[in-house]
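Quick illustration, no need to memorize.
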Amino acid sequence: MKSIDVLAAVLLVVGGLNWGFVGVANFDLVATLFGAGSFLAKVVYTLVGLSAVYQAASLKMIQQRWRVNAAAA
């Protein structure tokens, strides 16, 4: 399961950086790489969205698997 957690985290970083580029420079890296509205761009956007849902829904379980105490952080 840790590999899924890491993959989801990486996708969230990619999504966050992409939105940062959009906000700062009006530059959509995913659309530039794969084509605006293309199938591959939609796949990337969907995977980033699913990663966010996964991370939000399983935050407590992820903390337990990684032995992170949320109160200490």
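The longest helix spans residues 2-25.
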